[in-house]
Design a protein that fits this description.
Blueprint (H helix, E strand, L loop, with lengths): L12 E5 L2 H15 L4 E6 L15 H8 L4 H7 L3 E3 L1 E5 L7 E5 L13 H10 L11 H8 L13 E3 L2 H15 L2 E4 L2 E6 L6 E6 L4 E3 L2 E4 L6 H6 L4 E3 L8 E7 L9 E6 L2 E7 L4 E7 L6 H11 L9 E4 L3 E3 L3 E2 L2 E3 L5 E2 L7 H14 L8 H27 L7 H8 L4 H13 L12 H10 L16 H21 L3 H8 L7
Helix pairs in contact: 1-6, 1-9, 5-14, 9-10
Length: 503
């Protein structure tokens, strides 16, 4: 008779169900941090392809790698990665507009109790001050296609990575450290008849794999948390209506720039991600306003280089499972939720989830309090990112298509409405403790998409105009001087993390 896996059952055996980026990120993190305390098995099938388009990251990626003691130059060479200092947005506020959401600090503190953008807004109201991006090192370096890691302390950057090569790289770290990989497709999930906990997964081969804790990394299907345990999916499609993407890899025909491009079109937007050996391209759209064939043709017409593969189509829903953790199963990656890729948050969400798991690992069992707290933190993070993505679509002056007319007039979550009201009143922006996106992120997008505040913090008026001019001029001058000393992005890559010879 099987033992009843109650909530206080000791957790020693962990099964990661699914490979790809989510599976190997999870397995590598668990074995590197908790290896002596756990037996970690990863189950994946070579017959099941991964989504393979999560190639753009955010700065928390670097911090996660630091925790895993991964050498940056080694990883970048293996994944044929490039640096990412921010995201370029074209055609979002109006057709023809362009701005950058940089990953660095904008300006600097002036020993006054107000963020920098208030002083900049005050200067602009007086007829001087230039562009906001001139006060951000990452913005100016990105525009000049330059980078140097020792140019300034705390440079804000992330990476563009080849997702397939990255998963392979992580596997090369995880297996020697003790992760056992099992090849096979999951045929069934066995639940305990009394508790409803997961007892085992059964593979097509008939092999039965038991564990105390199961990590569901099975992608959109969510085989364990969604299908077997019945945790429902909360659909946010009423706010984020893009639901499809066509993706293709192309030959590089220009030096890689250190930022991702997000170029809006009449029914969504298009991404361009430069790697060392190729470019990643995709066209995100709402299939209510654009057909699959139209999207494919548009993508192929607009990419710069020769396609290296046949374009492939993806369908998705933006939303999350009502609970990320149910009984003895936690879903990470696409199995737990997905927010469309506009701000490159998918890999961050899986890394943040596994970090929370390590911090609150259920060694003594999946207690209700532990599960509840994990789910609360997961939901807060998902919802804050959701609101930031909705912001890009809603704050626009575009009325050239039905897609944009609906986006600009739709009802938005109360949480986002409250933020917009604060900004409109006097340019107030904030970042909560659990939030990914900083004050600079909100101000860059709001100002970049022409959502002008009616005022700003009047504390900025207390700085004499001569002092403000000098403060802004010195800040711009220091940044320009640093950028001038940097090598170009391609030069730095060739020296620091050259890609291995082609396979």
């Amino acid at each position: 008779m099987q033992q009843d896996p109650t909530s206080d059952r000791v957790v020693k055996r962990v099964v990661v169900a699914g490979g790809g980026t989510a599976g190997w990120v999870t397995a590598t993190a668990l074995v590197r941090h908790l290896g002596p305390l756990l037996d970690v098995t990863l189950v994946e099938s070579d017959e099941i392809s991964t989504v393979g388009v999560g190639e753009s990251t955010v700065p928390t990626f670097k911090g996660f790698h630091d925790l895993l003691r991964i050498k940056e130059d080694v990883f970048m060479s293996a994944a044929q990665a490039t640096f990412k200092l921010g995201i370029e947005f074209e055609n979002w506020g109006r057709i023809g507009d362009r701005y950058i959401h940089p990953f660095g600090i904008i300006g600097r503190r002036a020993s006054w109790m107000a963020p920098f953008h208030h002083f900049w807004l005050h200067a602009r109201a007086r007829g001087f001050g230039g562009d906001l991006g001139e006060y951000c090192l990452e913005h100016m370096a990105g525009e000049a296609n330059r980078i140097a890691l020792d140019a300034a302390p705390n440079l804000g950057y992330a990476y563009h990575v080849d997702a397939t090569r990255y998963a392979r790289f992580l596997r090369g770290l995880a297996e020697p450290a003790g992760v056992r990989r099992v090849e096979g497709k999951i045929r069934a999930v066995e639940l305990h008849p009394e508790s409803g906990f997961v007892d085992a997964i059964v593979l097509d081969s008939g092999e039965r794999i038991e564990a105390d804790l199961f990590i569901d990394c099975t992608g959109f299907r969510s085989l364990i948390l969604g299908e077997a345990l019945g945790v429902p999916f909360e659909d946010w499609g009423r706010w984020i209506t893009t639901n499809s993407a066509v993706a293709v890899q192309s030959r590089s025909v220009r030096p890689p720039q250190p930022y991702t491009s997000a170029i809006a079109h009449e029914a969504g937007w298009r991404w361009r991600i430069p790697l060392q050996h190729r470019e990643g391209n995709g066209l995100v759209f709402c299939n209510e306003f654009m057909s699959d064939d139209e999207a494919r043709a548009k993508l192929l017409a607009e990419i710069a280089g020769e396609p290296l593969v046949e374009p492939w189509l993806l369908r998705f829903k933006t939303g999350m499972r009502v609970d990320s953790w149910s009984r003895n199963c936690i879903a990470l990656g696409l199995a737990g939720g997905f927010i469309e890729p506009l701000e490159s948050t998918s890999i961050h969400l899986m890394m943040a989830g596994v970090t929370r798991l390590i911090e609150d690992f259920p060694f003594n069992g999946c207690s209700p309090g532990l599960v509840r707290r994990f789910n609360e933190k997961s939901r807060l993070e998902f919802e804050c990112i959701r609101d930031f993505i909705i912001l890009h679509y809603h704050v626009t002056e575009r009325d050239d298509s039905a897609f944009w007319r609906r986006a600009r007039t739709m009802e938005i979550p109360d949480s986002l409405q409250a933020r917009l009201a604060l900004w409109r009143e006097d340019a107030r922006a904030y970042q909560l403790d659990h939030e990914l996106f900083r004050i600079e992120s909100w101000s860059s997008v709001l100002l970049g998409q022409r959502f002008a505040p009616r005022g700003y913090h009047r504390l900025a008026e207390m700085m004499p105009e001569d002092a403000l001019r000098d403060f802004l001029d010195r800040t711009r001058g220091e940044i320009a001087g640093i950028v001038a000393t940097m090598p170009t992005h391609p030069e730095f890559l060739a020296r620091y993390c050259p890609a291995p010879p082609p396979e």
